Fold these 2 entries.
Entry 1:
Amino acid sequence: MQNWQRWTTFAVCLASMATLGIASTFSLYSEELKSRLSFTSSDLNLISGIELATEDLSFLLAGPVVDKFGSQVAVGLGAMLYSLGCLLAQLAYRGLIMGTRSTMILYYILVGSGSTFVYLAALKLIVVNFGGLAYEGVIMGVALLFYGLSPMLFAQIFGWFFAGNIQGYLMFIAVTALVVNLLTVLITSATRNGMTSRGQPSISAEPAKHVDKITIAEETNSLISGTKDNFGTFAQVGQDVRRLQSIEDALPNQCIEGGDTIDLQEPQLQDGSMHYSMRRTPSITPSKIENGSFMTPKQILRAPVFWSFALVFVFIQGFTYNLNFIQILQATLQEPNSTLLSAQNTRHVTIMSFSQSVGRFLAPILLQRVSSSYRPSLLCLAQVLILAPTVVLAHGVYAESLLYFASTCMQFGLGLALASHVVLTEDFFGAKYFATACAFSIACTPIGILGSNFVFGQLYDRDAGTGTECLNANCYSKAFVIFSVFQGVALCFSLVVFYLRWRKPQ
């Protein structure tokens, strides 16, 4: 792959990430859905909870599809599902098609599954094209930053252009996501098993016997260098050699992945000999797990660290706060008219999006600079940052300033945790089955999301009584007492992950 292809692919992956913000902006228009379609708070929590749960469950399908058929297929499929779901929700809001609780759940299932296909496919492209490089952490951080900034971007677009116009907002998201992601399908490139993403051979090389000497200082070094007295013979071959597997026979004792690409550098004449160098760019660089290889799907499920790692994301909090923020804001300020709170709500959604984005951006960079044994410590820190505001909300708050603290601290911690999940999944289980490992470790998360949303909806409706709005701190504080217990369990499991990794580093 040429360098410009790698960076062009990265750019369109960022654009795809930035189109996936509808779930986190649900609170911007949930009250209008509630009044227009006669929903209760429990109905809204069920719809939004199933949408988020679908995002996680879809990893089980999206992971194998991405690994087997490639990212382009997954992005195309995801774009169609995502846009179709948004379009159907828009038509239901307008009253042109059925808009019951059950049908809205179906529409948001399409949105959630499409979002996962696009997200995981974009991540896999980035892992494939940048894995193993010195700046991999920054690249991953920027990608997750764009994903985290998506809600902030859409919140501003909603506030400026679509306030009070839900059907226009949903149509805008549907069209934007479809156009951007179909462009991603056309533009992306990745090397896979000696083939480009377009299915063409990536080399036309002569036999490796022309290469007289190649040395590699160490397995993790990205610079391949060597010398040859008569450079002409090597140059003839070097013009065509772009895949490491074409010279595999010349490297009998090196543990190098066959998908790695090598780029020939300019030769230099030194001491009467021509010196050359080739820079190796790993397309997929599996983590070395005990036996020097990556884990297979069966090995992943049998690994002791896997179950504790997965359970962290079953009990983790932050999603329910995000989805129900307008109701929490109403109860805190005791304002019965949610329309009057539109500006504050948009501001908080922006703050939550920005805080989560910063966490997503920093986590890969920090993890790359920490030794393998101590990387799960960041996951533990994230749980503490989420737990602190959850406990504050459990006591009830009566000032918006405390909500600013909760929005910032909780979402920053959630951003750290979600980005750590991506990096630690590759670190624990390897990159060859990266998408599948993500699917396994996130598969049970919907249990926690649906459970938390159910608890919030039931307790909110009970305190609201016969009215549709609940305007005191008890409306949400009882739910956050339970959420504090859940988050405490998540913290305990993150400490177990840290202990297992510290005791037996890979």
Entry 2:
Amino acid sequence: MDCGLSCPPISSFFPLGSDVTAQELEVAYKRQYTTKPEVEDGSRNTPVATIKWPRDGKGKSMSKNGNDTRERSQVFVWGSKSGLNDVRLVLMEKLAADVHTTLVKEMPLAELGLDGYEETTATSAVMAYQLSSPSWLLQMG
């Protein structure tokens, strides 16, 4: 008899940031493909962008190539008043729009002769993938 252990659905979570401190939230945007590349993208497992949001401010790209200099809307509310830690809230619509805009700008695979991301608007599927984490299952037997 095979048996498996996994987390119950009530234990579901989503990881928003790749790093969080008392002063800022860092989010690594995953590469997403809406067209099947004919050639393997060598950067597939590398984030398309890493954005840092200061606790009470607008986000900035940590891009090393300097292409993305946009000032980004605040996507995370960290306290009901400045300096408080009583509320943490994701402004999902703004985050989805920022992820979409970043993918449109940063995902063209011109060097491979094709586009990797061709969505025309932010979608729940894009955000589901961005916020997904592995589902662990321990197989026994």
